[in-house]
Amino acid sequence: MQTAPATANPADLLERKERTGIFHSRGWRRFLRYRPGVYGLGVIILLVLIAIFAPLLAPYDPNVGDTALRGAKPSWDHWLGCDAIGRDMLSRLIYGARVALIVGIGSTFIAVVIGVFFGAVSGFFGGWVDQALSRIVDTLMAFPTLALLITLAAVIGPSLPIVVIAIGGTVWASYARIVRADMMSLRQRDFVAAARAAGASNGRIIFRHLVPNVLGPVVVLASLSIGNIIILESALSFLGLGVKPPTASWGGMLADGRAYIRTYPHICLVPGLAITITVLAFNLLGDGVRDALDPRQRD
């Protein structure tokens, strides 16, 4: 006579749930203890506000230039100077923040959705399903990301939506790997057996009971990956395969200034510093989130 599977230990489930949430009291306290992460979060919040209120903050039209101000150095009228065709650098920098955040956050969201889905299905079912999906992941990870993005952008054509979709559709493999590994461990747990005994379908077990317990590492990886995606977008725009001109993007601003780096160095310096600060802020935030979600950390 078979006995019903043992129900999940409530304490164990509570512990696993706590690991995945940064906004519970313990996780938030651990995050606040890591000062660089708090500073990074502050910079990101400032960038988001700048991007949202760009029309109110930009002193000039970012796409309209004055040939009399070509390469003008920083002044009271133009705080960051003007580019090679007389466009205000501060205005273009502000509008460029929109592109950077849209691509960084949008592409990361797409990558997380695709990666979590494939990783969860692969790790839960195993067998031939796991073999087939794992080969797809291995094939995708075998290609250099930037080379693959350049090929896609060249074939499809450069535009902001295409950049977001192309990057999100090519960087999801690392999320799938992490989720698959955790799912293969969790599917043997008692609470999964209890859910099966209660009549839960495979889809409900995967997305209602298992996926929430593997989101901790995914959140950490996502917060660290946004900076890398911003660099990828800047690289594509620098090569002329990103956002179409005259739309302001930091990579495009770098490309515009490379021919004048000796005569008008501020044209390259301004967007370069913006990319550096933004990527550093997201990396610091990711480090803070990692500490907050680490169950080995003590309060």
* Helix/strand order, N-terminal first: HHHHHHHHHHHHHH
Please tell me the total number of domains: 1
For CATH, the homologous superfamily is named as: MetI-like
User: Which topology does CATH recognise?
Assistant: MetI-like fold
Arithmetic mean of pLDDT: 86
Contiguous runs where pLDDT drops below 50 for at least 5 residues: 1-20
* Multimerization state: single chain
Our estimate of the beta-strand percent is under 5%
Structural class: mainly alpha
Please count the helical segments.
Answer: 14
Instruction: Give me the Rg, rounded.
Output: 23 Å
> Based on the structure given, which CATH architecture is correct?
Orthogonal Bundle
Q: What summary fits the major beta sheet?
A: none
List key phrases describing it.
mainly alpha, MetI-like fold, 14 helices, elongated, disordered N terminus, 299 residues
